[in-house]
Specification:
Blueprint lengths: L6 H36 L17 H27 L4 H19 L11 H20 L4 H24 L13
Length: about 180
């Protein structure tokens, strides 16, 4: 080998260095190739296997969004209940908010009715009206302002989700009764 600054020794020695590096990398390439081939064999589906099934939500993505929003609002109502319990807020409003959270979870996680199995928009609107009445009575009875205002905000949110469910057309559709023959 020449000195460090010598260009001729590096230039003449370069093919040998490259050949040594390739020789060192060849076992790793072989291992990677066999691992990829093994993985491909494991994940191959046999010819007699049925096609993979696609799981779809009943009612489509709109129903899933409405259910998700309803679950999120019910969870936030549950958090409001826990915070109100910890802060020793007005007892009757706190516990009725807890019942509202339970009702919200039942509405959102329920199976729904009708062919689309969507959430009934009437149930969401009824819960919103109930929470709105609770917050109005809470303001009239001088309950904690933060609790009544958050209850009113959640009532408005439930009302908007109920209206959005009805407008999207994914709510419960009623078929007119058939005449008896």
């Amino acid at each position: 080998m020449g000195s460090i600054g010598s260009r001729t020794s590096c230039a003449t020695d370069m093919p040998n260095r490259v050949a040594n590096m390739v020789a060192l990398l060849q076992p790793a390439q072989t291992l990677a190739r066999t691992a990829l081939e093994r993985r491909a064999r494991v994940h191959q589906t046999p010819a007699h296997a049925p096609p993979p099934t696609v799981i779809t939500l009943a009612g489509g993505w709109r129903t899933a969004m409405i259910r998700g929003l309803s679950l999120a609002l019910a969870a936030s109502l549950l958090i409001l209940w826990v915070v109100a319990l910890n802060n020793h807020a007005t007892a009757w409003l706190t516990w009725l908010d807890g019942l509202g959270a339970l009702a919200g979870f039942m509405i959102a996680a329920g199976p729904g009715v009708g062919p689309g199995r969507g959430i009934s928009p009437g149930a969401l609107v009824a819960l919103a009206i109930g929470l709105g009445v609770l917050s109005t009575i809470g303001l009239a009875r001088h309950a904690e302002v933060w609790l009544t205002s958050l209850t009113l905000m959640l009532a408005c949110a439930f009302l908007l989700v109920g209206i959005a469910d009805r407008v999207s057309g994914q709510g419960v559709t009623r078929t007119p009764p058939r005449p008896v023959q």
